[in-house]
Write the structure tokens for this entry.
Amino acid sequence: MSTKDMFSTKFDPQHGNAVSVAPGVMRVTCGNTGPFTFQGTNSYILGEDVLAVIDPGPEDEAHLETLLQAIGGRNVSHIVITHTHIDHSPLAANLKGRTGAKIVGAAPHFAARELHLGEINALDASADRNYKPDDILNDGQRVHGIGWTLEAIATPGHTANHLSFALTDTGIVFTGDHIMAWATSIVAPPDGSMSQYMASLDKMLARDDRIYFPGHGGPVNNPKQFVRGLKTHRKMRERAILERLSKGDETIPEMVRQIYRNTDPRLHGAAGLSVFAQLEALVDKGLVSCDGDPSLEKRFKLIESID
């Protein structure tokens, strides 16, 4: 699979309806469409008699009512959170109030590193700082219901607290925003870390899963091949950055204009954050230099030849 052809935007969200995607698994897609959320946030409902809801989504009354209709008065034991962005976790508190379920999963929002002096968190508004879990799940910990068990897989990178969840004995993994069929995940310091993201891809590649259900868009039906493609895609971006540096580009806007010249300009801000994440990793590797701590406004220079 070439990186050009690996992503798929074929997806029917069926807003306002619960869609069966696997035995005992329903998907409800919120109507919060946009350049970063695609066709909206996917919430998943697991089980038959006692249910779990994965990523209830943003504060959206219509989405809450669709979830409650799909639940149909059945007991909800757990609300499971992959990470604390405002399109994934804020509705948890409201849904807990309506169902009595426990909120479990990701830790409260935190950054992969502290802000450098004078640095501004460009995605600060995207963090759900009101999120309060009843139980935090760490890597390998499980949560059980009648007929289902979810196992937490620590997959930091998109955010420092990101978890994926394997539905045991099915080959199904709910990957949140870590791996999606329609696009690569945004990795933006200080909340995100490219080094952690790549390590999390390696972790998923070592598994033998059958299908991924992501937080946005349709499923990934060939996980190993797709993850290999994601790694290749990121390595190509890294090489493109090194090539721009070798040609004299020193600032992130200069690099974005060239590397992402065929990308929707509305996404150039996010692209700049991704370039920053990769530059931060390249500085850590000793391939690129920066005057002081890396930041979006700094100038970067190549240390080693890329020949």
Observations:
- The mean pLDDT is 94.
